[in-house]
Write a structure and sequence with these properties.
Layout: H1 4-16, H2 18-29, H3 41-54, E1 58-63, E2 77-84, E3 87-97, E4 116-117, E5 120-122, H4 126-145, E6 151-159, H5 170-175, E7 186-189, E8 197-202, E9 204-213, H6 228-248, E10 265-273, E11 290-299, H7 305-322, E12 327-336, E13 339-340, H8 346-359, E14 364-368, H9 374-379, E15 386-388, E16 403-405, H10 406-425
Parallel strand pairs: 3-6, 3-7, 7-15, 8-14
Antiparallel strand pairs: 1-2, 2-6, 4-5, 5-16, 8-13, 9-11, 9-12, 10-11
Helix pairs in contact: 1-4, 1-10, 2-4, 4-10, 6-7, 8-10
Length: 431
């Protein structure tokens, strides 16, 4: 049972933590955790671990040894803090990734100083997602400071490599039991999706490399070779003229945003064909005997992956049969199935209640066009109650002059704190 006086005390404490929230966000931005290569992971984990330990957490550091990007120069470190109450009960876990993308061009403020102006904190990662990490920590600290953590437990993790697939972060933790139903009941990922939205899940993704091969020949006598680039051109034409219109007619019931993401999509990520040119740029005088294409197929929860793959193979077979001497190979790079937490799950309904209470309107339920770390939690872990909810505007992620609004962080911290308290005091069974 959540009492009004508890909520009033909790919200007042978060309001009083405004300066601390801003300072914490700035501190996190000042760690240039750019991925690749995966810099300063241990440094930011040490910082987070010390802060959580100071508030009574049991802290563990987990290195994802064996994942492809882990190395002694750039080790894949993760930190998990667990705050436990005297009375057993459910566990609410807040997960944030610690890595950021490169800065790129176009900045008018220093990207790693955490500049504060006009009610915003600027910097690489401010929006995606160090502002969300800071807000979740302030929410946890407010619950502890008010003496409201009397049942169950709270966890907060800072994890590696979300920007490159999450294999050294949440993927590693999920495979090793950190998101099993026996220890965690609800997971909130404070990704920047606007503080009045709840993201239930995401579409599926299939990244694959297609290589078409032909036969090399002299460029002056192309009729004696088999040009793989021409074969790839046939494939591209078939995809654009036949497959893409079919995909555009497939619409998901998932509440994906923007609206175009409710349809199945396919993107050509890259094409590489022929022999490498010499350093001076002179052409190679041969018929191209190979051409590679990387595709990014986003598929819907209503689609079967076997059929998604079969559609591409069918087109490849048609290309192969149309030109003698062509062949192909298909290499899967990465596949993640669509995932979505039920809109009536206790986690979703609780967040919705507090969003409506604080924003005076019901939450907007959405699904993401791209994947994020929920894919690992529902794929390798056994926790199904997982959503993304946090401050920030997704359109600002990865942009120059990235920022997060201070008021948005405060409001999100209140929603997260009140929702966590409600879930901790509810019956864990069936959550």
């Amino acid at each position: 049972m959540v009492h009004e006086q508890d909520i009033a005390q909790l919200f007042a404490r978060i309001d009083a933590s405004r300066d601390d929230l801003v300072a914490l966000t700035r501190d996190l931005i000042r760690f240039p955790t750019i991925n690749p290569p995966g810099a300063d992971y241990r440094a930011i984990c040490d910082f987070l671990g010390a802060r959580m330990s100071a508030h009574g957490a049991t802290v563990e550091f987990v290195r994802a040894k064996g994942v492809p990007d882990d190395s002694d120069e750039f080790p894949r470190w993760n930190v998990i803090g667990r705050f436990s109450a005297p009375e057993p009960g459910p566990c609410v876990h807040f997960n944030s990734h610690i890595d950021v993308v490169e800065t790129g061009l176009g900045w008018t403020v220093p990207p790693f100083e955490g500049v504060v102006k006009d009610g915003r904190v600027y910097g690489r990662g401010a929006c995606d997602m160090k502002g969300g990490l800071a807000a979740s920590l302030i929410a946890i600290e407010a619950l502890i400071g008010c003496g409201l953590l009397t049942r169950g437990s709270l966890e907060c993790s800072g994890t590696a490599d979300e920007e490159s697939g999450g294999f050294g972060g949440v993927g590693h933790l999920a495979r090793n039991g950190w998101f099993d139903r026996g220890r965690v009941d609800h997971v909130i990922i404070p990704e920047p999706l606007n503080p009045d939205r709840i993201c239930l899940g995401h579409r599926g993704v299939w990244w694959a490399e297609i290589e078409i091969t032909g036969a090399i020949g002299h460029g002056a006598m192309p009729f004696l070779g088999v040009n793989a680039i021409a074969g790839m051109g046939d494939l591209l034409k078939l995809i654009e003229e036949e497959l893409m219109p079919r995909l555009g007619n497939r619409v998901t019931a998932m509440p994906c945003m923007p609206e175009g993401a409710r349809r199945a999509t396919l993107n050509f990520n890259s094409v590489h064909g022929g022999q490498p040119e010499p350093g001076d740029g002179r052409p190679s005088p041969v018929v191209a005997d190979r051409c590679r294409l990387v595709i990014d197929r986003r598929y819907l929860v209503e689609e079967e992956f076997t059929e998604v793959k079969a559609e591409i193979i069918d087109l490849l077979e048609r290309v192969k049969s149309a030109r003698a001497g062509l062949d192909y190979s298909l290499r899967e790079i990465m596949t993640f199935e669509p995932t979505m937490t039920a809109p009536d799950a206790p986690l979703v309904k609780t967040l919705d209640h507090w969003i409506e209470r604080l924003f005076d309107r019901p939450a907007t339920l959405i699904a993401s066009p791209g994947t994020y770390d929920q894919k690992h939690i529902t794929r390798h872990g056994s926790v199904r109650a997982c959503v993304a909810y946090g401050p920030g505007i997704l359109d600002l992620a990865h942009q120059p002059d990235e920022w997060v609004g201070i008021e948005d962080m405060l409001m999100s911290a209140k929603v997260m704190a009140a929702a966590a308290l409600t879930l901790l005091r509810a019956d864990a069974e069936g959550a």
